[in-house]
Amino acid sequence: MVLQLAGELRRVDPDRCLTVLAAPPPPQLAQPLLALYLLNAELARCTEVKQGPLLATLKLKWWHDALDEAAAGRPREQPVLQALAAPLAERRLPMVALQSLIELRLTELEERPFADLEAMARHASASGGRLNGLAARLLGGGDGEIAAAEHVGTAFALIGLLRAAGHHAALGRQLLPADALDRAQATFQSLREGRDGAALAPLARMIAARAAAELVAARRRQPRLPGRRAAPFLLAPLVDGYLRRLANGGFDPFTPGFVRRAPGGAWRLLAHRLKGRT
Fold this sequence. Notes:
Shape: globular
Low-confidence stretches: none
Strand content: under 5%
Structural class: mainly alpha
Distance between the termini: 30 Å
Largest sheet: none
Radius of gyration: 18 Å
Helix content: over 70%
Number of helices: 15
């Protein structure tokens, strides 16, 4: 099942898949780690249905109930749930944390969920940050390691929301700070078409600064990669790369070099892991 899960994760979340390939965890933990990341992708996919928030809510409710059943030892015939059943039953993954990831997706269905950058940052911490902390916990990290991983995940989530602005707009959603979008006079049409990037540059600078600060906090707590528990921390060099490409593009969030994934990511992560620094 590991190959099946890895293949699916490579398709829907290639960045996180690269981190697992570059820092393989112990064999008994690879399957649940891949499944945890795939769960996050499945929840994100629930909110991207074009039929509206009602169907998205029903899909998220399906995952809520299915996780409860998996924790009780009755996983449905679905690879992610079957891979998560044991760590849920053994409480290596706390159910309340996974359910909170579902609740956060519900807030994304609101018309303008983030009033300002602080609201966006809190969401990034509670979603991507928490997910990365859960990954560190699953791999056996202690409290300090988990906290550092949460900072890395928050940075990755902030950059991810900025990179996905055009994609979200095409789905009729705005997941950037409402006050900044109003100042830039950004519309769904301009976001879908990748226009007005210069007007959004001040917002992109603020998001980039916040993401960079999260990486600084992570590296203070965890300056060295923790061996076979390194996968959650390899998101940090990926964020570094996105930040460089954003700056090189004048902080235009629609610059292709920022929105698209750069080639050769696997080799860069392997080289970063060999250096051993977070």
